[in-house]
């Protein structure tokens, strides 16, 4: 999916909480693009939602991981460890998917900044 914006868990949670500032920022960043989440974000958000609110997550396009994502994640992980900046597996997979799709990763988590030097497009809001 070209021309995409991947919304990280931290952003989706704020959107679900009704954070108007985040909503406006995401709307502006996603203008003319496909806003999607990864399978990891879907799981993380669903795990924290009450049963009656879970169906809302079916409205959000979700991208899966495959072998290509795994290879990119491995490259990112190895590079970060060499730099002394290890990252969690979920964050590495999300960053790898963004890199694979040449998408912009929109997050509130400053920890994703470490992926920028490895070619991942990250916007921290």
Write the layout of secondary structure elements.
Layout: E1 4-7, H1 9-16, H2 20-29, E2 34-38, H3 39-48, E3 62-63, H4 67-82, H5 89-101, E4 104-107, E5 121-124
Parallel strand pairs: 1-2, 1-4, 2-3, 4-5
Helix pairs in contact: 4-5
Q: What is the CA-CA span between the terminal residues?
A: 23 Å
Kindly report the spatial arrangement of strands forming the biggest sheet: 3-2-1-4-5
User: What oligomeric state do these chains adopt?
Assistant: single chain
Helix proportion: 40-55%
Low-confidence stretches: none
Which structural class is indicated by helix and strand composition? alpha/beta
CATH topology: Rossmann fold
From the structure above, extract its key features.
Rossmann fold, 5 helices, 5 strands, 125 residues, 46% helix, single chain, 15% strand, alpha/beta, five-stranded parallel sheet
Commentary on this structure:
The chain is α/β, with parallel strands linked by helices and 125 residues long. The protein has a single domain, classed as Rossmann fold (3-Layer(aba) Sandwich), CATH 3.40.50.1010. The chain has five helices and five strands; from the N terminus they run βααβαβααββ. Helix 3 links the parallel strand 2 and strand 3 (62-63). The longest helix has 16 residues, at 67-82. The mean pLDDT is 95.
Quick description:
This protein has helices at about 10-15, 20-30, 40-50, 65-80, 90-100; strands spanning about 5, 35-40, 60-65, 105, 120-125. It is an alpha/beta fold.
């Amino acid at each position: 999916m070209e021309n995409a914006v991947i919304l990280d868990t931290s952003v989706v949670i704020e959107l679900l909480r009704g954070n108007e500032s985040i909503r406006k920022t995401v709307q502006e960043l996603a203008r003319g693009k496909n806003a999607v989440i990864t399978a990891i974000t879907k799981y993380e958000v669903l795990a924290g939602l009450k049963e009656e609110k879970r169906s809302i997550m079916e409205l959000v396009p979700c991208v899966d991981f495959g072998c290509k994502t795994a290879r990119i994640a491995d490259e990112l992980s190895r590079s970060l460890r060499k730099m002394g900046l290890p990252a969690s597996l979920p964050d590495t997979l999300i960053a790898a998917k963004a890199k694979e799709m040449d998408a912009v990763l929109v997050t509130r988590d400053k920890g994703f900044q470490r992926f920028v030097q490895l070619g991942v497009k990250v916007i921290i809001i």
